[in-house]
Design brief:
10% of the residues lie in helices and 46% in strands. It is mainly beta. The protein has a 22-stranded antiparallel barrel. The protein has a 5-stranded mixed β-sheet with strand order 3-8-9-6-7, with no helix packed on it. A 4-stranded antiparallel β-sheet has the order 35-36-38-37, with no helix packed on it.
């Protein structure tokens, strides 16, 4: 249905423009012909005319995201380009999304794109970059555009260019401010209330007794007598425990003893965001300068989740002599984070607030109450007393997630210095020598406190400190020769680059708090851990690129780069990466040159190889020393030293290579009123790094060795289109849309590997790395409400009480005998974005929707709410449709304490469609007429109303299909909705 709508919209747009274009344009004999200025885009190690590009390079300018209330530039990448998929960041202020460009490049290695900031690599957090300082970013996707970055380019490249001053003219002073509300963007799953809950658990207990042969009367009595004392432990009503539920009915005389049963309310709040930025820029004919200071303060919608950032930037470029140009920029960033629990990495932890406010039963109060009056209890200081008494097995008995989160703390302080400098020597009119230096230093300090009242650190209390210092130094030299011979244009680049990364880690942990309200290590008695680590990574590179075009009509490009990485042994350390590209600007041919309909038409293609040496194993040491066996220190026995064998390495391990081909058609119609690109790509990853299983008898830690053993491809189509539907002096209406497909498949596994099972996925030849491998759910038996699975072949001819035939299909009620099979993929069929922008006189409105069609999500969060025998855990309202009567057709099994492990087992039952559509952002603005505000010294004034993560529609309320690329869900801090108002002033 969505495909049909897109198609109809596109056809309608073309028809509309075609019919109205002639009415909107001025007659050619009344126009003064202006000189056309070539559009230039940023490319690897330089810039190039857009019309001569043969690579896939998407440029996003600052005006497309400048008015949005975003803290991280990664948020602006979402939906900005076809082929780019985003896994949304959490609701933690300052968090960053994950980015994939053209699919999955690696299994054991990193899939993150390379970030280049002002010409050199940037490995820090994107939240350290003030988005208002960014002039543009370019997304490079194919070998022709990325191969000059060689071994770091397999996952694509994002070039970020910061703002500079302007030559001549008047200096500009800009002040931007915004403030707004922060709230939850994804609604919670619907769950049963306290009145519905007790009878449901009673029913599961009664049915469990019936399944063991008890009579109905005895089963009913057992459930009534043990509902509270045996299972749930707490009774929220003023009725005796054994009379609360009788014959499955909640006692009609039952009244709640207290109503404060909401665990979400004490932890969820309305957050607040404010942002202020002041920049000053200008220049003479020889020198330009840009400076800025910025302040961002955002409190999340979860208590104790805050982010504060100060930024300062100074950038100066100067033409010292006709033959010498110098430039430097310096960024300083200081950020403070009050960090909520990371639900993604602590999914079922007792201190995970997203887990327990979702999954604790509706019968428990977080607060203690007087057993006689039922009044809420307070201590002598007037503070509420939290309940940590006995609860059901599924309700964190003895713990209180609210109290623990309020008492614990997790504070991060980050300090960044990001510096760039360059010198450019004009040797002659055709030859330029330049050198660039980038030096970044990041000091990340984190302090955590575990309280001594309740939780994992009780009763002693704990304090831990982590300090990480990272330094990167990049130094390159570029020799660029650019010459024109008649209609022939040549550009040759020769370069050398040295990259150095240094990592220093220090960690300490102590227990035994001495005095209250002091979390410094000196205030704790017993050191339980004190460790440090230093790692280094170096890369040496030589590279070259040759571009040629004839009359900007026939285009050729070739590049090569030799990289050496310290991650590999000397014999395999060096490797070449290269690309070849060609293009034909059909528009420049005589038969199209004067066409009034076709304003641009270019066919381009490329093939090349890039690499990946950025491993992503859980063992940090192995990431740096992949070819070496590693050992762990610190396993001492009193005064006796102890060293453990940590990893067994393959000394021949080497780069993962990525062979890429790309074919594209760029077009423009009606004086570029409609522009777009249709593109096909094929990426083949060779020498994939996998953990190769080893026999237990080999004594190898982890029973695996990382080796180059696999081959995989990613291929797909990308379509992007932009159209100015209406374009008049007072009214402009534009549309944009993009769509992408992705097919991923493993084509080879070697070294004895036939399959790798990892959670809900199985890696094997002929399947994607994101294909689900699961027990096959069949449904519910209408006869008795039993959960049913397809039978595994090994049990098909084995008579047993748990195997039966339903509707002619052999099934089992025992999940241990269920058939395992592939069950679809997490990869969508189509994903992308579409949007519109309208401007009428001084008003402007822009929106962007993101969407996904196809693919499946394994909704473990929903699975946790669908237990057939919850012992204090919350239940989805879908449980109300459970089987209760013989012959009933439903997909939800009977509640039963004897069979619930089968009903709730991991299986294809919990797969759900990943389709979604989201109103990702919208901005409404009003710009005052310059003539009206000039009397106040203002050159421009714009008022803004903007929103992020405004609305979404998914297959199930509460579902977050964009949470991960692999289709799994966790109880995590869901993304925030931000609605802000602001103003931009220029003087």
């Amino acid at each position: 249905m969505m495909k049909l709508k897109f198609c109809t919209l596109s056809v309608a747009t073309v028809f509309f423009i075609g019919q109205n274009f002639s009415a909107q344009k001025k007659k050619s004999d009344t126009l003064t012909k202006e000189k056309q200025i070539d559009e230039v885009v940023i490319v690897a190690y330089g810039s190039q005319k857009k019309e001569t590009l043969v690579g896939s390079n998407t440029e996003i300018k600052a005006k497309q995201f400048a008015d949005r209330p975003i803290t991280n530039i990664g948020q602006a990448i979402d939906g900005a380009s076809p082929g780019v998929k985003i896994s949304t960041g959490t609701g933690q202020p300052g968090s960053a999304p994950s980015i994939q460009i053209r699919g999955i490049s690696s299994y054991a290695g990193s899939n993150d794109p390379l970030i280049i900031l002002d010409g050199t690599p940037f490995t820090g957090s994107l939240s350290a970059i003030n988005t208002n300082d960014i002039a543009s970013f370019n997304i490079l996707k194919d070998a022709a555009s990325t191969s000059l970055y060689g071994s770091a380019a397999a996952n694509g490249v994002i070039l970020i260019t910061t703002k500079s001053g302007r030559k001549g003219g008047r200096d500009l002073l800009n002040f931007n401010m915004s403030t707004g509300y922060v709230g939850r963007s994804i609604s919670e799953y619907d769950r049963v209330n306290v009145y519905q809950y007790y009878p449901l658990i009673w029913e599961a207990m009664r049915n469990g007794q019936l399944a063991t042969g008890s009579t109905l009367a005895n089963a009913n009595a057992y459930a009534s007598n043990n509902l509270i004392s045996g299972v749930l432990k707490q009774n929220a009503f003023d009725i005796p425990n054994n009379l609360l539920v009788v014959d499955g009915i909640l006692n009609p005389d039952a009244k709640l003893k207290y109503t404060d049963l909401d665990w979400q309310k004490p932890l969820i709040r309305t957050g607040f965001r404010q942002n202020y930025e002041l920049n000053y820029s200008g220049g003479t004919n020889k020198t330009t300068y840009y400076s800025s200071v910025g302040y961002t303060n955002e409190s999340g919608y979860l208590v104790k989740s805050d982010f504060e950032r100060f930024t300062a930037k100074l950038k100066v470029d100067s033409q010292i002599r006709d033959w010498l140009k110098l430039g430097t920029s310096l960024n300083a960033v200081s950020s403070y984070g009050n960090n909520a629990i990371d639900g993604a990495n602590s999914n079922s932890s007792y201190v995970n607030p997203y887990n327990w406010i979702r999954n604790i039963g509706p019968i428990y109060s977080p607060f203690a109450h007087d057993p006689n009056t039922f009044a809420t209890l307070y201590d002598t200081n007037g503070n509420v007393i939290y309940d940590n008494s006995a609860r059901g097995a599924d309700a964190a008995s003895g713990r209180n997630v609210i109290q623990e989160n309020l008492l614990n703390s997790d504070i991060s302080k980050n300090f960044y210095i990001v510096s760039r400098a360059y010198a450019e020597f004009k040797i002659d009119p055709y030859l330029t020598l330049s050198t660039n230096v980038g030096y970044d230093v990041r000091n990340n300090r984190r302090s955590k406190y575990g309280n001594k009242i309740i939780g994992d650190a009780a009763p002693a209390g704990s304090s831990e400190r982590t300090s990480i210092i990272e330094q990167t130094l990049t130094f390159n030299q570029l020799l660029n020769y650019k010459r024109k011979f008649g209609a022939h244009n040549f550009e040759l680049l020769l370069g050398h680059e040295n990259y150095k990364y240094m990592y220093e880690y220090l960690y300490g942990y102590k227990t035994g708090q001495v005095v209250d309200n002091n979390v410094e290590l000196i205030n704790f008695i017993t050191p339980t851990s004190l460790t440090s680590q230093t790692d280094n990574y170096r890369k040496e590179s030589f590279f070259s690129r040759l571009n040629y075009d004839y009359q900007s009509k026939y285009l050729l490009s070739g590049s090569v780069r030799w990289d050496a990485s310290s991650r590999f042994a000397k014999d395999v350390r060096w490797n070449p990466f290269w690309s070849l590209g060609a293009g034909w600007r059909v528009k420049a041919e005589d038969f199209l040159k004067n066409s009034s309909t076709i304003s641009e038409l270019k066919l381009r293609g490329s093939y090349g190889q890039v690499g990946n040496d950025n491993t992503n194993t859980s063992d940090n040491a192995q990431n740096f020393y992949m070819y070496q066996n590693t050992y762990s220190l610190g396993y001492n026995n009193a005064q006796e030293a102890g060293i453990l064998f940590n990893t067994k390495a393959d000394p021949t391990i080497t780069w993962e290579s990525n062979n890429q081909s790309d074919v594209a058609l760029d077009f423009g119609l009606f004086n570029n009123r409609i522009t777009g690109t249709v593109e096909y790509y094929n990426r083949i990853t060779k020498d994939m790094i996998f953990p190769v299983p080893q026999p237990v008898s080999a004594g190898i830690p982890g029973n695996a060795i990382y080796k180059n053993v696999g081959t995989m491809y990613n291929r797909g189509f990308e379509i992007g289109i932009n159209a100015d539907v209406i374009k008049t002096p007072n009214f402009v209406w534009s549309l944009n849309a993009n769509a992408s497909t992705l097919k991923n498949e493993i084509t080879e596994l070697s070294d004895g590997i036939t399959e790798i099972i990892n959670g809900t996925k199985k890696i094997s030849v002929g399947h994607s790395v994101y294909d689900y491998w699961m027990k096959q759910w069949y449904g519910v038996d209408p006869a008795d409400g039993s959960p049913l699975f397809l039978v595994a072949d090994a049990y098909a001819n084995t008579p047993a009480s748990d195997i039966r035939t339903v509707n002619g299909v052999l099934v089992t009620t025992n999940h241990n005998k269920a058939k395992l099979d592939y069950s679809g993929s997490a990869i969508p069929k189509v994903f992308g974005s579409f949007g519109t922008s309208l401007s009428y006189k001084q008003w402007a409105l822009s929106t962007m929707f993101t969407y996904q069609i196809g693919g499946k999500t394994y909704d473990s969060n929903y699975q946790g709410l669908m237990s057939s025998y919850s012992q204090g855990g919350a239940l989805s309202t879908d449980i109300l449709d459970r089987w209760t009567t013989t012959g009933q057709i439903t997909d939800i099994p009977a509640l039963n304490s004897s069979t619930y492990l089968n009903s709730n087992a991991t299986s294809s039952r919990w797969l759900v469609k990943s389709d979604f559509i989201s109103l990702r952002q919208a901005t409404l603005s009003y710009s005052f007429n310059p003539d009206e505000i000039s009397r106040y010294g203002l050159s421009s004034l714009k008022l803004l109303l903007s929103g992020e993560n405004i609305w979404s529609k998914t297959a199930r309320k509460g579902l977050e299909p964009g949470q991960s690329f692999n289709g799994t869900t966790t109880n995590r801090y869901t993304p925030a909705r931000i609605i802000s108002i602001g103003a931009n002033l220029s003087f």
